[in-house]
Specification:
By secondary structure, the chain is an alpha/beta fold. The chain has nine helices and eight strands. Strand 3 and strand 4 form a beta hairpin. 39% of the residues are buried. The structure holds 2'-deoxycytidine-5'-monophosphate (DC).
Length: 206
């Protein structure tokens, strides 16, 4: 079974997806980490983004490995966030990473998180969640995670990135028609995870 969790940055996807995977005993796929890893690889070694996305070896898990090198901490910087959003507009990068993502989720039970899981990577996913939160709350959460002193600066960057993600020609960020939209503003992580775990149980037939 695949549970697709899509939505904009800062909606709480990563925390929700990770906690949900643990609660229901599924594997967890952080597809954004793949875009980040390719972006990071291009910082180290400039080249063609599409080719790099195809050729690079990305291992996900507690630590993220790029061609055998641990890049877990290096892929969360503001520069890499911006570069990842940029290369995510390239259809060749998307095609190469979607192949890797489909390969992973084709067997077993997965909670897969990203922007296009329910629309492109796993359109047949048994459960699709589109997770949102108000822009202000998303920026405040991100600022806390990043240790940024002023969440308004984060809000400004976030607005630009949202526009880039929503307006790109290929696989723009949008909810799948059959996705359940959940707004996590003013809700605790536990509350949201419990609700989705209930939906997983329902879809599995009790
Ligand atoms: O979820 P994240 O912030 O780690 O994602 C990093 C970037 O990758 C973000 O700008 C959007 C892009 N992305 C995407 O286009 N499709 C995905 N399935 C996951 C991430």
């Amino acid at each position: 079974m695949v549970v697709a969790i899509d939505g904009p940055a800062g909606a709480g996807k990563s925390s929700v997806a990770r906690a949900l995977a643990e609660k229901v005993g599924f594997s967890y796929l952080d597809s954004g980490a793949m875009y980040r890893a390719v972006a990071r690889s291009l910082v180290d070694r400039p080249g063609d983004a599409g080719e790099r996305a195809r050729d690079v070896d990305i291992r996900l898990g507690d630590r993220i490995k790029l061609d055998g090198r641990d890049v877990t901490d290096q892929i969360r910087t503001p520069d890499v966030s911006e570069a990842a959003s940029r290369i995510a507009t390239d259809p060749r990068v998307r095609a190469a990473l979607v192949v890797k993502q489909r390969e992973l989720v084709k067997e077993g039970d997965w909670v897969a998180e990203g922007r296009d899981i329910g629309t492109v990577v796993a359109p047949d996913a048994e459960l699709k969640i589109y997770l949102t939160a108000s822009p202000e709350e998303r920026a405040q959460r991100r600022a806390k995670d990043l240790g940024a002193p002023d969440w308004r600066v984060v809000l400004r960057d976030q607005t630009l990135r949202d526009q880039q993600d929503e307006q790109r020609e290929h696989s723009p960020l949008r909810a799948a028609p059959d996705a359940i939209e959940l707004d996590s503003t003013d809700r605790t992580l536990e509350d949201v995870v419990t609700q989705i775990a209930g939906l997983v149980r329902d879809r599995r037939g009790g």
